[in-house]
Design a protein that fits this description.
five-stranded parallel beta sheet; two-stranded antiparallel sheet; Universal_stress_UspA; Rossmann fold; globular; alpha/beta; UspA
């Protein structure tokens, strides 16, 4: 991070922690001794999900913290693109059921790694707002762990990165995890 960007960030909020995670080396360091109590791991089913979950698990174990694993389903993703009435009840049920199975698997991985206090959550809505503001406010999250990007370069340009929005607007610390082999910048 450039010095000017860091100064701007410091002016907007108190910097309590410098957190780094290198997935290739499995390194997780915190510059101070602050302890997180409620860690939010935001997953989207992309290639980065495993890396994001691993970083969240390591943070939860290090801090003996509660772990919330969250995924957001957008209603427009449930339709076939031709319907104007929105998804049918069957489409919604099928999508939620499949998502629930994937989330149960992530919860089991966290528990197998030693995290004892873990919950999964499926929310509908705008991922930017839910991850950055709504969920952390409802669950008192003090750290958000999120992947570097779930979008292509064109999508990021057109609609903006969820990660970028979360890192700029969240009221708690944000740990951005880049998966091994991710070369997007």
């Amino acid at each position: 991070m450039k010095r000017k960007q860091l100064a701007g960030l410091a002016a907007n909020r108190t910097l309590t922690t410098l957190t780094t995670f290198n997935y290739n080396k499995g390194v997780f360091n915190m510059a101070d001794n602050s302890q997180y109590q409620n860690i939010l791991v935001a997953v989207d089913g992309s290639k980065a999900t495993a890396a994001v979950l691993e970083a969240g698990i390591k943070a939860a174990l290090r801090n003996r913290a509660h772990l919330d694993i969250l995924t957001i389903t957008q209603v427009d993703q449930l339709t076939d693109g031709y319907s104007t009435a929105g998804p049918s009840a069957d489409q919604t049920y099928s999508a939620v059921h499949a998502t629930r199975d994937r989330m149960d698997d992530l919860k089991q991985r966290a528990q197998a790694a030693g995290v004892t206090d873990v919950n999964i959550h499926i929310r509908f809505g705008n991922p930017k707002r839910v991850i950055a503001r709504e969920f952390p406010a409802d669950h008192h999250s003090d750290l958000i762990v999120i992947g570097a990007s779930g979008l292509s370069g064109v999508e990021r340009f057109m609609i903006g990165s969820v990660t970028n929005y979360v890192s700029r607007t969240a009221r708690c610390d944000v740990l951005v995890v880049r998966a091994a082999g991710d070369t997007q910048r």
